[in-house]
Write a sequence for this structure.
């Protein structure tokens, strides 16, 4: 048995936006809880919740590197590599950005679908910049396979790879 306590997230899309009605008092909070593309409007005395998502959006989010302080990156076709070796056992920040608001996940194994991926970027809401802060061991190459979904549920079909190596320091024997 595996149990996880995670923040609640509204369902993808906006097919239930019309369930927020004036009879029980539609609010911005209630509206946005019905779907990730639901938008609340108040016009005079009328409160309306509508699907504000682009009906023609059929593309998954495009992923690109997020600038990393003190490091240079080498962009690849489907990812990026951090050029310099990273110092071990210190806080290390890296990330990605997307061309639209998205939720992103990563895994240490290649080829997992978005819904099967184990880890997220600590986000519980859709946004364009996704960061990770880690403290990792030395003498190892790390590979993070990333996929994202937008508010309409369009998910990346191919992994975006972020890779880097940690600096190996030998202890001197006296």
């Amino acid at each position: 048995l595996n149990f996880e306590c995670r923040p609640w997230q509204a369902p993808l899309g906006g097919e239930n936006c019309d369930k927020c009605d004036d009879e029980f008092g539609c609010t911005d909070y209630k509206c946005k809880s019905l779907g990730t593309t639901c938008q609340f409007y108040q016009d005079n005395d009328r409160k309306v919740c509508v699907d504000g998502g682009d009906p023609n959006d059929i593309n998954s989010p495009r992923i690109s590197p997020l600038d990393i302080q003190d490091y240079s990156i080498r962009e690849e076709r489907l990812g990026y590599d951090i050029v310099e070796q990273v110092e071990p056992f210190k806080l290390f920040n890296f990330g990605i950005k997307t061309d639209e608001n998205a939720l992103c996940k990563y895994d240490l194994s290649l080829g997992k679908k978005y819904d099967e991926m184990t880890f997220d970027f600590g986000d519980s809401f859709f946004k364009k910049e996704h960061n990770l802060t880690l403290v990792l061991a030395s003498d190892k190459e790390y590979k993070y396979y990333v996929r994202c979904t937008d508010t309409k549920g369009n998910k990346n079909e191919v992994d975006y790879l972020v890779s880097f190596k940690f600096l190996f320091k030998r202890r001197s024997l006296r």
